[in-house]
User: Fold this.
Amino acid sequence: MTRFKGAASLLLGGVCLALGVPPALAQNNPGPDLPGFTRQFLAVDEGKISYLYRQGRGPALMLIPGSFSDSRQWERVIPELDPGWTLVLAEVRGHGQSWPPPARGSIEQFAADAMRIADVRKLERFYVGGHSIGGMIALEMGRAWPARILGVLSVEGWTRHQAQEVFGRPANPTLTEEMNRAREAERLRVTGGWTEEQRKTFAQLWSRWDGAELLRKTALPILEVWGDRGRPTPAPEAIGICERPNIELRWIAGASHPLPAEKPAELGRILAGFIRRMEAGAHLFGAPGLRLPAGRAADFSELPRLPGELITIFRAVEHEAGFNMHPYVTHFGGRFWAMWSSNRIRDLHAGQHVRFATSHDAVNWSAPRMLTPREDEANMRYFARGFWIRAGELWALAAYDEAVRPLFGPGLELRGYRWNAARDAWDAPVVIARDTINNFPPERLASGEWMMARRDRRMRTTMASGGLAAPGDWQFFALPAPEDGARMDEPVWWTLPDGTLAAALRDNRKSGRLYRSCSRDQGRTWTPPVRTDFPDAGAKFHVLRLRDGRYAMVSNPNPDGVRIPQCLSLSADGRVFTAMAVLRDAPTVYRFAGKDPGYAGYHYAQLLEQGDSLYVIHAENMEDIRLLRIPLRALGNLQP
Assistant:
């Protein structure tokens, strides 16, 4: 039985009112329960709350109907959801078999009712969604219990009551006469035991609730689904929706407010797709303050700023070392060590080589020395690839190949140079891995093995594990391609508190978002990368776990592709970064000619925690190598 077969319900509702049956005795005529669900009841202060329950193996989703609707509102949406998910269809006081209507109801009260259902069903963490007032209740649950909510799916859930005026009149222009009759029949069926005064009181409850502040500040992933009324869509701000990375706004064309009735299959697919993306790890960013207005430049003006001392490690020299890029920094043997790629004018050309410098205080740096030679005449080049502290020894890594376009040459290999303190020089290179250019130096796994992200000459991304028996002892494990066709590059990985490995990757198709993959077997197999909500300029970034347990990411989060600003983000659990601050955002100007526009900005940063400071090495305009020193105490103001 569908929810449009409402003639009998309408008749019964009319009879109850005509006979003057008291509301507390009449109740409603909810009709039969949905197949596959069991009806449950929960006692509350004024009566009882009813809900339908279906046990599943996967994530749990609670759905809350809109005003004057019951659980059958979701009947034609449910077939589009995963049959393995646990589903809870909660009915608001006075709706369905929840009785009686609220004496003094509120969005907050209904949210508390829904959470009591979650408690009884032992849903520790779950998704919650709803239509109209149900969407508002879902948002309120996210505000009041953020640690319990995995994500909010709000379907036409008004953030503030003034937003309804944006759509104009008639309110639901896409509904046919038959749809309007069915909608009215449903209203009368569901509220057959209500008095007219109760209907009027309930219809005004939602106008006293405002969710604007929640959407401005929440770290939760939010899905907002709206019908466009068959008209041009208004700006998100007009309907009270902030344009933030963790808020996804979807419009359903040719539909109005009653989306579950008008476009149930399309709505169900949107809800299911959102949950599947979240379960795959698509929620990576939740820091308030960053706005991403559609069709306009990202707005970083509300982000806090971190204080830092800016230090120059190397200043470019025109025609001799006008290009400097790929910087890395470490601390070993009581000294800071920095390395970078250098060339006369531009990158990738023959003669590109690696330089290094040292410092005892990170402020005063030695004159740069050559780590690798120039090989102009041989048409070869080097790329700086970072420092590896292995078995108490310092190794410098550099990739070596022919100067060809596109990247990389057939002779690509990763070389290692061991520091010889007695000679105050690097030993002759050894091959670390053939057909390999790493992204950052190897880091330790819980197994004791080393692991580094790598690409081969065809730009295929893999993980290399090993490095124990010898510096050149590695096994390679592929990262699968993303299902949406994005082009993955320069993966960065880190270990989560539960031992799971997380990897984030930039997208060379310029989606403006990072992708994420996970491994539960120490890097042997990885999930297909999924697009996250973390904004990205398509630039190399770095993640470091700090001594206090927090995770720090330095990146260029401008989805327009400009590598300004440079920002630091923090996460408490390594899964979602819930704080972001600006490090550098001043416009930059080239000193030397011959460079592409993309050279502008702050490039390829790496983090180092040493002593009471956090260091950020980076290239400015691909000319100068700079180091930003930030007091660790300043991070205390950023609470992830």
Notes: Residues 128 and 136 are 11 Å apart (CA to CA). Residues 1-26 have pLDDT under 50 and may be disordered. The chain has nine helices and 34 strands. The radius of gyration is 29 Å.
